[in-house]
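[SOLVED] Need 3D model of a two-part complex

Original post:
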Amino acid sequence: DGGITQSPKYLFRKEGQNVTLSCEQNLNHDAMYWYRQDPGQGLRLIYYSQIVNDFQKGDIAEGYSVSREKKESFPLTVTSAQKNPTAFYLCASSTASSGNTIYFGEGSWLTVV
Amino acid sequence: ILNVEQSPQSLHVQEGDSTNFTCSFPSSNFYALHWYRWETAKSPEALFVMTLNGDEKKKGRISATLNTKEGYSYLYIKGSQPEDSATYLCAPPARQLTFGSGTQLTVLP
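Solution:
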């Protein structure tokens, strides 16, 4: 079945370590996105990519990095520069056309201790 | 970026009650609005795409209306059931990339 796969679902890391969250889609979508959710808050955009080898910062990109070497993959690295990395992270994808619906992965919980 | 606001932030209703909540957005430069349902431990899933002023969409007991001139969309749930408990999000098309903070609905049995 087509969809978006995020891994790992739960991740614990020590403060100061970089962490990479995986996102893979087999929907043949051009665009991919990373969102963060904190308790009691809405989804905030970290990075997005409209096409392979290109990506743009979202509202809260500081302390994060991404790559888009393949159409189906958009990994997110949470670096040690991210001051409050503990959160729920959602990856999503969509077609590049206007009016497009976003399809989401099931999310990754990151806890930094 | 098109900013959207949703209200109320959370809502508790009894099983069988009907309910509604609001998504507000700037009426200028409007293109389309999406509604999503996000159940706990699952991925958000698309409910409706609203594009035209006066649009009304329906899926079972859930329906949505759109007023682009005044900049709002309503989501209605008729005869709420516990399985309707979820966070309901609205958002413009993906390119504009901004979600509302959602309305968290809890339906009590």
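Edit: Chain B touches chain A through 24 residues (CB under 8 Å).
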